[in-house]
Design goal:
386 residues; alpha+beta; 8 helices; 25% strand; TOPRIM_dom; TOPRIM_DnaG/twinkle; 5'-3' DNA helicase activity; Twinkle-like; Toprim domain-containing protein
């Protein structure tokens, strides 16, 4: 069999007839091959000077009708290997070395990443909380495309387990226990001197007198003042625990509030409920002072105001309940109370606050205050207004 030499690859036409013979047409030459594989290999593939590179990746099978396949003909001394069927190289069937190590390490945490496709997030059952009562797939898991690292986070509020893992132990990985939160910043130690607090001036004493709050009540609650920005004087509500200053909240003439940073979150007036069986909780420092003027010292105020609405989520664990951390900081005081009176504001946020407090303190010992009417249509908003 002679084939004219070609300086460059040339398109040829292969026709498979129903008789089982291969016909190869190239330029003016017409070559015939038997269908038997051994004959094909002996006459063409095993030629030391020719190679046929089929553009199709599939075997050519006989068919009753003629089949046309285009190919490229070039010179080479190499033999043509038989076609090899290669499966898709994903991590389910062909794990990389890194992926295998990562899978072993993740199995130790109870996470099977064999169900994952690298590069695509997946939801699985959290090995820590088991998805709660509903057994929901709450753990979001992501494996990097190269199979070298894993990242996960449980979105159940009562769990919140999260972390990351690298395949190689010498690379940094981190993960915590369920319900574990970041360490709280170091609590500052405060003093009246360090905050530059001063006794109330006559102007601020008059401000409180207009609201029926006496100087005696102000002194007993250690209400002070501070100069800010030149001539501006602001009210300083000092937060104390066992007599020691632990935080301070400020209010200016425009009713703008702010607090000292990195301080312990507690109730305002905490020492007044140390041995109280009945505890009154109000929404602001001014309300606490007004309640005391009415003859009730067993009253405290929340430090951060009210939420816009009641949360639809499950209650978080104590160490993740950041918004209401003051409740858990003062738990030993509240545990002694047999009755808790929620005297929050009458507006929507105030009612939402009362509901959130009752959820955490136990509805069975919580009572609600309804403020009296100030006219035919409206009620008083809070204790200070009454």
């Amino acid at each position: 069999m002679l084939i004219p030499p070609q300086s460059s690859p040339t398109c040829v036409r292969i026709v498979l007839s129903s008789s089982g013979n291969y016909w190869v047409r190239m330029a003016s030459h017409l070559l015939k091959f038997n269908f038997a594989p051994s004959s094909w290999q002996q006459q063409f593939f095993q030629s030391p000077r020719r190679r046929l590179n089929l553009l199709s990746t599939h075997h050519i099978r006989p068919h009753p009708s003629s089949l046309t396949v285009y190919a490229s003909l070039s010179t080479s001394n190499a033999r043509i290997p038989r076609p090899v069927s290669v499966e898709r190289s994903d991590y389910r069937t062909l794990e990389s070395h890194c992926f295998g190590i990562l899978r072993t390490r993740m199995n130790e945490l109870g996470i099977d990443i064999g169900v994952c496709t690298p590069g695509q997030p997946i939801r699985i059952l959290c090995p820590m909380c088991k998805g709660g009562e509903s057994s929901e797939k709450s753990l979001s898991l992501f494996i990097s495309q190269d199979g070298d690292s894993a990242l996960w986070n449980c979105f159940r509020a009562k769990c919140g387990w999260k972390g990351n893992m690298r395949a190689h132990p010498d690379r940094k990985s981190s993960y915590g226990k369920p319900n574990q939160v970041e360490k709280v910043k170091k609590i500052r130690e405060l003093s009246e001197e360090s905050l530059e607090l001063e006794p109330l001036c006559s102007e601020l004493l008059g401000f409180f007198a207009e609201r029926m709050i006496s100087g005696e009540t102000l002194r007993r609650n250690a209400v002070m003042q501070k100069q800010c920005g030149g001539d501006q004087i602001v009210i300083a509500f000092t937060y104390r625990k066992n007599g020691a200053l632990v935080s301070c909240k400020y209010r200016d003439v425009n009713k703008k509030f702010w607090q000292e940073k990195d301080t312990e979150k507690i109730f305002y007036g905490l020492d007044d409920i140390k041995e109280a069986s009945d505890v009154i909780i109000v929404e602001g420092e001014m309300d606490k002072l007004a309640i005391e003027e009415a003859g009730f010292r067993n009253c405290v105020s929340v430090p951060d105001g009210a939420p816009p609405s009641v949360s639809a989520k499950d209650l978080p664990p104590e160490d993740r309940d950041i918004k209401y951390q003051y409740l858990w900081s003062c738990k030993e005081y509240l545990d002694k109370a047999s009755r808790i009176i929620l005297a929050t504001d009458s507006d929507s946020p105030g009612q939402a606050l009362a509901e959130e407090l009752a959820r955490r303190l136990g509805r069975e010992r919580c009572w609600r205050v309804r403020w009296p009417k100030k006219n035919e249509m409206d009620h008083f908003k809070d204790a200070n207004e009454v």
